[in-house]
Design a protein that fits this description.
This is Putative 4-hydroxybenzoyl CoA thioesterase. This protein has 135 residues and is of the alpha+beta class. It has three helices and seven strands, in the order βααββββββα. The protein has a single domain, classed as Roll (Thiol Ester Dehydrase, Chain A), CATH 3.10.129. The model has no long low-confidence stretch (mean pLDDT 94).
């Protein structure tokens, strides 16, 4: 299954040339991951942090900027899981305007305890949730 969510390219996302400013895509990517946790996995980041005492910080990020986006564009972001490691999670995120892919992102996160920020093993319950979004 692939998770998808629509995001608007707002004026605040653009540089003086009127196109999407590259660091804003990283922020949008993080929003997509948060949306996926809440709407796809079934737990919001706040509960993940406060109740479960877990976080999944990004440790590697690859971004391909394929086609510029401009103020007013509506992009459909898709997210799928490429790999589940011992403590890591590899995600593939793309943004589309219709049939045109605008950006392609590969994100690696590591599950950590927020108490000491050390990696922990992704247990079977989390693996089942994540694997529902495997390609």
């Amino acid at each position: 299954m692939v998770f998808s969510v629509t995001k608007n390219i707002r004026f605040s996302h653009c540089d003086p040339a009127g196109i999407g400013f590259y660091p804003r895509y990283v922020e949008l990517c993080n929003e997509v991951v948060e949306d996926w946790f809440r709407d796809g996995i079934g737990i919001g980041f706040r509960d993940l942090l406060e109740e479960h005492r877990l976080a999944i910080p990004t440790v590697r990020l690859e971004v391909d900027f394929l086609v510029p986006s401009v103020y007013g564009d509506r992009l459909e972001f898709t997210l799928s899981v490429e790999e589940i490691g011992n403590s890591s999670l590899q995600l593939a995120i793309s943004a589309w305007n219709g049939t045109e892919e605008r950006i392609r992102i590969r994100l690696k996160g590591v599950m950590v305890s927020v108490d000491d920020m050390r990696p922990i093993r992704i247990d079977e319950a989390w693996r089942r949730r994540f694997s529902g979004f495997m390609r």
